[in-house]
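Friendly challenge for the regulars: who can give me the structure tokens for this chain first? No prize, just bragging rights.
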Amino acid sequence: MSRRRAGAMCGGQGPLSRRHLAVLPAALLAIGLVTAVISSLGAQLVPTVARAYGVSVSTAQWSLTVALLAGSVATPAMGRLGDGPRRRQVILGCLGLSLTGGVLTAASASLVPLLAGRTLQGVGLGMVPLVIAVAREHLPAGRASSTIAALSVVTVSGVGVGYPITGLIADNLGLRAAFWFGAGISAAVLALAWLVIPARSAAPRRRFDLLGAAALSAALAALLIGLSQGEQWGWSSPPVVGLLAGSGILFALWVIRELRCPYPIVDLRLMRDRTVLTADLTVLFTGVGIYLLMSLVIRFVQTPPAAGYGFGASVVVAGLVLTPFSAGSVLGNRITPPLHGRVGAVGAITIGTVLFSAAMALLALRRDQLWQPFASMGLAGISVGITFAAVLGLIVDAVPAAETGSATSFNQVLRSIGYSIGSALSAVILDAHTGRGQSLPTDEGYTVAFTVGVGVCVLAALLSLIPVVGRRKPEAIRSRHGPVAAAGKRRNENVPGRREHEDVPGRREHEAAAGQRRRSAEPDGDA
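First reply, four minutes later:
Bragging rights claimed.
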């Protein structure tokens, strides 16, 4: 293919062709799917990594931790870089690093190069906000909305498919074959992105807040390492306490920096909008629930029945338990638009989080038959499909186009933090219900953990109601002025110095007094 033809196909000049617009959504979803494949090479393969490299399970756990850590640290910076004119280069660079990491991981003869490769692969976990920004800028409104909604769940739905596939490959062809599978997927998607991702972008070039990015990266690294290693090192140990305390201090300094910086890595002022605040808090607590549920279910079904509970399932069967989660998330994504039309985005989020509470409650009450974890994961998938699609729609509609990548990347970071908290929370609860000298927790520990999950999801449902608490009926504004006037009013409220007259203190009194003076100065009509 000639360079001119490739440039034309990727949108280098002029508007995108009809053929290009037809292919672009599928390509964006394929890029998002890479993040799911990278994630599926983590948790369930940890015991296999330990056996293959002759290390303890806790040491092999770093093959998962470093990928999640790299993704969380890189996501905010990539989101901000993706809001500029070099978005395509950033996407191709991330995919290139992911491919390099996949090859290094698959070819590694010891644990150190494997961890280095997993770190490079983890950078690819932050690509979803970038492709969301591409969809918003280049696709027609209808196609953009449906594509963004699908991208919101592709990472979680893809994990449910990736887990059993990578488990089967590892069981039958070996660990290296599973890692080569991940590298092959990255190579195929890199080629697709080079051909399809538009080169042109209307986004302006902006200064990059290097100090803010460094502070946020250090704060996230300290938080996630502390959470992931708390069980191994001890939650009251000096390293864990120091990491968590240092993370809190760094986050505080970062917030101060971002609020004062004219070009922040994340525009925290956007969180003054109740809609954005709701989306971020809901994703944080829903992320806690997702990994709490996944960690508990995978561990429970693999527990041998001799413990008095569990099903003694293999790694492959444990991965298959997550398949209903993927199917449910796709279904939830499909039913979100009509549900949004009936109850609005906030109502859809509330319904989704309530369904997640029901999925947790099912296992808190009954888990003596294998169909129950399958049913719970299916219901959880539907709830996540609804919640994440509605949440992402709220953010994209609420923030300026130039902030799409940054706002969605910060939301993605909060989701990752929620995942880490959920994973750590499951370990803490089960460890507290494991007797001295015992290797397995009691069944009561799972009851407590699932009940805590119900509480987390109920809290997420309550947080989803923030936009409607204390807000005066926006419907009245629309009915009096029409949708265009209402939209104009919202834009004016977001721009300093452009408020409606009635919002300016003393304006009405001043105009009334001026009118009275004019009438007094005018001659009487009868004279």
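The chain has 20 helices and no strands. Residues 1-13, 472-527 have pLDDT under 50 and may be disordered. Your move, everyone else.
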